[in-house]
Design a protein that fits this description.
The chain is α+β, with helices and mostly antiparallel strands. The chain has 9 helices and 11 strands. The strands form 2 sheets. Strands 1, 2, 3, 4, 5, 6 and 7 form a 7-stranded mixed β-sheet that branches. It has a 4-stranded antiparallel β-sheet with strand order 9-10-8-11. Helix 1 crosses helix 2 and helix 3 packs antiparallel against helix 4. The chain starts with a strand and ends with a strand. Bound molecules: (R)-mevalonate. (R)-mevalonate binds next to helix 4 and helix 5.
Amino acid sequence: MAAISTSAPAKTILFGEHAVVYGAPAIAVPLKALRVKAIIQPLLASSKSLVFIKGKNTIEQFHIDDLPADNLIKGTFAVFEKETRIRISPFKLTIISKIPIAAGLGSSAAVAVAIIRALGEFSGIKLSKETVSKIAYQSEVIQHGTPSGIDNSVIAYEEPVYFQKGKGITYLPIKKKIHLILADSGERTLTRDVVESVRNCMVRNPSLYQNIFDSIGKITNAAKIALESGNSKQIGELMTQNHTLLKSINVSSPKLDLLIMRANEAGAFGAKLCGGGRGGYMVAISSEENRSKIVEQLHSISPYVFETSVGGE
Ligand code: MEV
C-alpha cells in the first residue's frame, strides 16, 4: 500500500470564544492555507506502530503504545478505534504541522482531524464530516476537558460556521470577501488552563459572567448578519466590542492589547484576540487598501504576521 497523506486546516474564531463554552453562539472560519499533514504507511504485522513528529529542524519518534493515554495522538487513535470498532494494523504515522501550538489557531483539533482522516483512509472506510468532527471532539475532551466543540466542527467541515453547543453547526455563507490579518503575540498559554481559570471566576461571580457571555452572544448574532451582508466596517466594530468583553474576563494580555491597538491605529476596521487568549494570535479585519500598512505596523512588534481572506467564492 502506498503512503496515505491527509491534512486539516487551522481556524480562527471571529466571535464568541469562551462564551461558547457556556452556550452562547460563536463564529469561526477555517484558515485553509495553514495546515497540518498526516502521512500514514503500513508496517509489518509483527511491528509496533510508530509516530514521527516533524518540526522545523527536529524529528521526534515514539512507539504509540509508549505514549500516555492523554497524549493527543494516542487519544485520537484510541477514540478512532472505539468509535469505528476497527482494529488498526501496525502503521508509521508522520505528523508535519505548520500550525503553532497553544496559539488560538486550533492546532490540537487540526492534528486530530488530520489523523482521523488518515486512519479512515488507511482502514478503507469513508468517514462523513460529521463522524470526523465527532471523533475529533472526543479527542479534544481528552485534551481540554470541556471543549465547546467549535474547533473540531470548523476544522472538520472546513467552512465558516455559526456554532452553538448542543445545537450543532450552521454553515455561514460569507458572500463578500473579507480581509483578515493575524499576528502572533509570541506568548503561549494552554487553552485548557485559560478555560479553567474563566470557569473558576464564573463560579465565584456567576451573574456577572453570565451577563458578559450574554452580551458576547448578542454581538455574535449581530456579526452573523454583518458577515452575511459583507459589511466589513460593522464586523470590525463588533470585533472590537467583543475584545473589550474578553478583556473584562481577563483573557487578554498587554501584548495582545498592544497589537490590537496598533492594528486599529493603522486603519483596521476592528480587531480582537482569537481563541483561548492570554497570548497566541490576534485577528484584525481590514479594507483591501489598508492591509499593507497594518501588516507593516504589526510586523514591527510581532514575531509572525500573516494575511488571509475569507468568503466571496
Ligand atoms: C478555543 O479555540 C475556544 C474556547 O472558546 C474554548 C472552546 O470553545 O472549547 C476558548
